[in-house]
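Input set for joint prediction.
Command: fold jointly, output tokens.
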Amino acid sequence: MTFARHALLTLLLLLAYLLVLVLGLLGRLFGDPLRRRPAPASAGYWRQSRRY
Amino acid sequence: MSTTALGISSYYHDSAAAVVEGGHIVAAAQQERFSRRRHDAGFPALAVASCLAEAGRKLDDVDVIAYYEDPRLKFSRVLATYLATAPRAWSSFRRSMPEWLGWKLRTLGVVHDELARLDLGAVPPIRRFRHHESHAASAFLPSPYESAAVLCVDGVGEWATTTLWHGRDRRVEPLRELRFPHSLGLLYSAFTYFCGFKVDSGEYKLMGLAPYGRPVYAPLIREKLVDIRPDGSFRLDTGYFEFLYGQVMTGRGFAELFGGPRREPEGPLTEREFDLAASVQLVTEEIMLNLAAAARELTGERRLCLAGGVALNCVANGKLVESELFDEIWVQPAAGDAGGALGAALLAANGPRDHLGSGRDGMRGARLGPGYDADRIQVYLDAQGLPYRRLATDELRSTVAGLLAEGKVVGWFQGRMEFGPRALGGRSILGDARNAEMQSTMNLKIKFRESFRPFAPIVLAEHATEYFDLRQDSPYMLIVAQVAEQRRLQQAGTEHLRGLDLLRARRSQIPAVTHVDHSARVQTVAQDTDPDLHGLLTEFHARTGCPVLVNTSFNVRGEPIVATPEDAYRCFMRTDIDALAIGRFLLLKSDQPPWHEDTDWRGQIPLD
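tokens >
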């Protein structure tokens, strides 16, 4: 891979990651899908499966 | 007319292929056996070619290609993880994103191109199934049950990590699921990593290590790492794990919780690792029992089918059997991702479950890989100029039984190769289970692996309960049972032994296969599924009064199980195996010409 191509790819990845960063931080304002809060003692964590 | 489906799993670990015609499984094999790279994740070109050859088919004869997961859905999980963890996961993002955008997002197109390159005919349409749907199908459709509860538990596929299903007739109906990052498989892998073993392959070692320790960390794991609910569900506290961020499983928080940094790979094993293994094993068993209870309640079924990598935890499976939550359980022998290829093919073929009337499952002893007839074996042996004896079936059994009774170790290469991680008598190394030295001999001189690792017994199915407390058959070596009380020995002066010193005690009449807690990973051998192995065990029983042998996979540490006669002979000559029974041909080590290799082969096989 040439230096120019490598630099361009890195720049594109950085821009993409910047987008992920912004979207991620915004997303966290509305709740984080990967960090479910502990459920109340009487509840569980199952999700209803949908039909494939 | 029945549908012929070619199932494929690839690009994570344990790539595999399977051919199904109607509801009949014709062939299945893992790529690693042919490429000789353990857990090979590449496109399974060699496995595809082998399965098609076994089936006598070309791609033109195949109606549909079935892929075992949905790459786009998986990408949505990867992306969501980056969104949730930014900016910490930059280095992982930089590595994985070019791959995803470059080719992984169009995996089905890549699979099409790879198949076209095989030059075996036109590539039929490709269908994709969900990762856990493939697991569920592989668990239920070949099982011997008309209907059953189905439980799939693994690390992660797309989003699902744990799923409950109801299997009826030809289909599996999804009921409940838990999603990434809340994963029992990843919890177990985190401890595997922390104890210095390789993730996705060292989990077996951790399970084998557990009986040396005490579960003193189990309360801490329940309090800090995993919130277990009475309905069977659970949630991990992701603050203690690093797998969300990139390449490692655990970090500083985990180390602080368990009194210091992780053990270095190949470093000395201490009481902490023994206790960690015992603790996470206990918690895993508790969670599996809860999940099984949930499956029982949701479906009302009295039989349970299992798949997913965690279903290879045969100690937990044994606890499930013992619990009597279900009348019987059946575990897919290729429960890991390789089995996904089979499940996807079964879903795509959607054929009748004709095996149900036979009282047996549809896996045919998992002997679904390539076989070698006498002519092909002889051509190889003659071409190499190797000294051998060609024997009649009875003579071969009798000679090998005699060698085993003398304490010799025998390579046993018979019939078709197994599908799944266990050697079940097609590509096995056998020894005398009564021999107290056999465990250390096999570990150190033949397998070149860690001394703590236990060996598994094979036993004549009709004599299994005389030696093991077993409530049901275990044809795939996936259920651990206790050695029967009447076979155990109490050796005075061994009560104080701890850790690896426990190995010094002779624990039963079959010490080579009795783990330090008197457990054994049993394989029951029935006459109708493996007449060759059954015949050998019968002969050994007649000679010695013992219907049990040691059965370990025909390989050395870090190497895939042997596939071909060439692989078998190489492994035979590299190790202290005394004799090789390959088809009807018997080779004695003492007759063989000296073995020479230019380089040290041990340096070429990466440790597992």
